[in-house]
Please model this.
Amino acid sequence: MLYRQLIAYMVTDLLPQIKNSLERSAPWRPRVIDLFSGAGLFAHAFEQEGFDIIHAVEEDPVAAATHVNNLRSRIDVMDVRRAVPAQECDVLISGPPCQGFSTLGRRDQADPRNTLCLEVARWARSAKPLVIVVENVVAFLDSPQWDTLYRRLRKLGYDVRPFVLNAVDFGVAQLRLRSFTIATRIGFPVIRSSRKNVPTTVRDCFSGLPRRPDGKNHHYSATPSELALARMLVIPRGGDKRDIMANAPQLAPPSWWKTPGEVTDIWGRMQWDAPCNTLRTEFLNPSKGRYIHPQQNRVISLREGARLQSIQDSWRFCGTPYQIARQIGNSVPPLLGRAVAKAIKKLLLP
Ligand SMILES: C[S@@+](CC[C@H](N)C(=O)[O-])C[C@H]1O[C@@H](n2cnc3c(N)ncnc32)[C@H](O)[C@@H]1O
Model:
């Protein structure tokens, strides 16, 4: 009899009490919605800082597949313009397309993608976040779309301020300047640099990886064509297409002589003991930037690229090599994303 009473007491009184007190002591996890979420690396940074990603929207099914592979959040694979928030959130993060703003592109004012950033204001109206973050290239801040977004967010009652951050100041082995427009109802975050005295270098990043890409865990590099290989052979560490023109002019096409200052045809080789330049989506193509390995005659591998973005080795990508390079080049480096997330968490949980 006593035994039965004890069981009944445990089931009806004790267990609910334990459950309640566990729920009370579990830390509050602010809810995040992520628009234009790509492979989910900005969201991942928030998750690592104790946020719950409740909803993401991304129209590219391959980037979304990577997101699903690594994060548990709901993701709608569709155009943000047709999606609606299912619930309110505490923080709205977003990485709208930057091609129309980038100084490397044509900076086409009429690029239809430029207005996509305004979707953030529409979502803010319904999801009522306390803080909003819009990540983009720095030139976005000079665009008429930024002005419109600023006015719309102000009208919704937010204070709005742009922050320009360099990934290298946050422990990333990369000189990567990006703008983070922050709209807030609860004050502005103080985003602290976590750079040690000496920046992380390409050598630090590649350490521990097999010297030659073995194809395992995305340590894959595109095989150069015969012409590309011949060009790479004459480019010293830190050098670029100017070395091809000087050392092997027969390998330089006529267009290089017509526009020697052209910034889109670079053929740059990395240095070992410095951070790399901004990693873009086409880093498997040696002409597109400074993506040639410091010592070997090949472009960096996907895993080396991921490391240069501070993406951990356990991150599982989906897609072809070129799709994966796009996801890496598009992403917010997680170490930088974490600094932003940490500062916002301090605002929400002082
Ligand atoms: C700069 S990336 C975002 C990267 C992401 N924040 C990260 O850290 O991994 C921009 C993304 O917006 C997506 N995109 C572009 N137009 C879109 C649209 N209309 N609706 C949804 N996603 C869109 C692209 O496919 C791309 O993955």
User: Anything to note?
Assistant: The radius of gyration is 24 Å.
